[in-house]
Design goal:
The protein is an alpha+beta fold and 222 residues long. It is built from four helices and twelve strands, in the order ββαααββββββαββββ.
């Protein structure tokens, strides 16, 4: 509203230049909504204009990570402002978040092994002798190397952006487990990972993680 872009509950093209920090915030909120709730969540603000951009070809539900950026970029263009990516050049900022176990139950039924991982950026972790977890600093991702499946990775950029969105909502650096949750599954096994602590720095387009503590639950698929 400070940029006169919200008129009677409907988002309108910006009537004047929008500061970089505001554009970054708008872009981040759109990415979060699209990834978590899908483009349906934007209908109250954007309405039928969604059909004018390539945002609904995969349906209006939550978007996969690979589609989030394209959809957010197209919708930001509807608002007449320049899109700002999660790691925009020229920006440098530190971050630090941790998980708080409150009284809300967390569903972990069906997992056989629990492992506490302290700072994956320094040492690899072996889960039940069957899955090796490493931190890939080049890709800024948790590398997963299972015995019975092809290696893969869980990128941290969108995970941290999701965490930051939750932090903006709560106003706290300590966040609930659901905000810190990652999952991976193959035909033979699955992992449920909670980020217990993550800290580092964003420098231009690079995510530099210095601390990464995890709580890992493992199970072989039936």
């Amino acid at each position: 509203e400070g940029n006169a872009m919200l008129v009677d509950g409907s988002a309108q093209p910006a009537p004047r230049d929008v500061p970089h920090d505001d554009r970054r915030e708008i872009s981040a909120v759109l990415r979060y909504l699209i990834n978590t709730h899908g483009t349906d969540a934007l209908v109250p603000w954007v309405g039928d204009r969604l059909t004018a951009v390539e945002t609904t070809e995969d349906g209006t539900g939550p978007s996969s990570m690979r589609r989030v950026e394209d959809r957010a970029r197209a919708i930001v263009a509807l608002l007449g402002i320049d899109y700002v990516g999660p790691w925009a050049p020229g920006e440098s900022s530190r971050f630090s978040y941790y998980m708080v176990w409150d009284r809300t139950p967390v569903e972990i039924t069906g997992y056989d092994v629990w492992l506490q991982v302290e700072n994956l950026t320094r040492d690899a972790a072996i889960v039940d002798g069957r899955v090796v977890l490493r931190y890939d600093s080049t890709a800024a991702a948790i590398a997963i190397d299972p015995v019975d499946a092809a290696p893969t990775a869980l990128p941290l950029d969108h995970a941290i952006e999701r965490i930051e969105a939750a932090q903006r909502t709560s106003g706290q650096r300590g966040l609930d487990p659901e905000s810190m949750r990652l999952e991976w599954e193959s035909d033979t096994e699955r992992l449920l990972i909670f980020i217990a602590r993550v800290s580092g720095e964003r420098v231009e387009e690079t995510l530099q993680v210095s601390d990464l503590d995890l709580r890992v639950f493992y199970a072989r698929s039936p």
